[in-house]
């Protein structure tokens, strides 16, 4: 048998987030970022997280737009923790163009973007709670970068692998990414075999029993 090769975050490109979620479930890891959706149908991304923490601007103070885009390494996914705020935005068309020029893989926002039409025209993958026109200037400010951030019930750490598609956004902790990838491939094989049996006329219940579908889903930390 040939040696197992794990090519890093690139390995998760094109793998459905549902399959990744099933794999993480077997390790007792949630990973899902609840409520975040693609700005446009068909968008997808996979890459290491570059995290940003935002906070409200105190009353009576001012704050300019966050300056961070020039520091994000090529091939990364920008993850912005804006506390689920939807009364202002932290991303627009200029940041999108800068991100594409820098070779970033996409952006995930626990909050809103703006300039939705312009962003859609670029094809740049963006996932957020929605879009809203109000600027974040003087409303929120960049508090920290490359620190652990919490989105919903999930902690995202710098370098964790972020994957997203039409089903949502999920985070694979970097310290279990290789094991998760192995489990993903096992699940893909199992589901392919179930599908083949279904196409050959086998009832769903029988196919699931044959390939230990439910037992597999209950595996934890193995």
What would your notes on this structure say?
There is one protein chain. By secondary structure, the chain is of the alpha/beta class. It has 2 domains: 30-172, Ribonuclease E inhibitor RraA/RraA-like (Glucose Oxidase, domain 1); 178-217. The chain contains 6 helices and 11 strands.
Helix/strand/pairing category: alpha/beta
Given as residue ranges, the uncertain stretches (5+ residues, pLDDT < 50) are: none
Cα(first) to Cα(last) distance is: 21 Å
Mean pLDDT: 92
Total individual domains: 2
Number of strands: 11
CATH architecture of the largest domain: 3-Layer(bba) Sandwich
Oligomeric status of the shown chains? single chain
The helix fraction, in percent, is: 25-40%
Q: Give the full name of the CATH homologous superfamily of the largest domain.
A: Ribonuclease E inhibitor RraA/RraA-like
Question: The CATH topology of the largest domain is what?
Answer: Glucose Oxidase, domain 1
List the secondary-structure elements in sequence, H or E. Answer: HEEEHEHEEEEEEEHHH
Total number of helical segments?
6
CATH structural class of the largest domain: Alpha Beta
β-strand percent reads 25-35%
Major pleated sheet: 9 strands, mixed
Topology (SSEs and partners):
Blueprint: H1 17-25, E1 37-38, E2 45-56, E3 77-89, H2 93-102, E4 106-113, H3 116-122, E5 126-128, E6 130-131, E7 140-145, E8 149-151, E9 154-156, E10 161-165, E11 168-172, H4 177-199, H5 204-210, H6 213-217
Parallel strand pairs: 2-3, 3-4, 4-5, 4-6
Antiparallel strand pairs: 1-5, 2-7, 2-10, 8-9, 10-11
């Amino acid at each position: 048998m040939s040696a197992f090769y794990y090519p890093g975050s690139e390995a998760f490109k094109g793998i459905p987030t549902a399959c990744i979620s099933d794999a993480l479930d077997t390790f007792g890891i949630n990973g899902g970022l609840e409520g975040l959706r693609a700005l446009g149908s068909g968008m997808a991304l996979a890459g290491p997280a570059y995290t940003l923490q935002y906070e409200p601007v105190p009353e009576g103070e001012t704050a300019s737009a966050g300056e961070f885009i020039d520091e994000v390494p090529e091939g990364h996914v920008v993850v912005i923790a804006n506390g689920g705020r939807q009364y202002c935005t932290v991303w627009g068309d200029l940041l999108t163009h800068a991100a594409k020029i820098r070779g970033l893989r996409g952006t995930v926002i626990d909050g809103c973007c703006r300039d939705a039409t312009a962003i859609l025209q670029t094809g740049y993958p963006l996932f957020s709670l929605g879009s809203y026109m109000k600027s974040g200037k003087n409303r929120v400010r960049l508090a920290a970068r490359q620190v652990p951030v919490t989105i919903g019930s999930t902690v995202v750490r710098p370098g964790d692998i972020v994957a997203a598609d039409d089903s949502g956004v999920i985070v694979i902790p970097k310290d279990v990414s290789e094991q998760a990838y192995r489990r993903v491939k096992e699940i893909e094989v199992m589901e392919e075999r179930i599908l083949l049996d279904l196409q050959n006329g086998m009832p769903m219940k029988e196919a699931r029993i044959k390939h230990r579908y439910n037992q597999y889903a209950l595996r934890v930390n193995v």
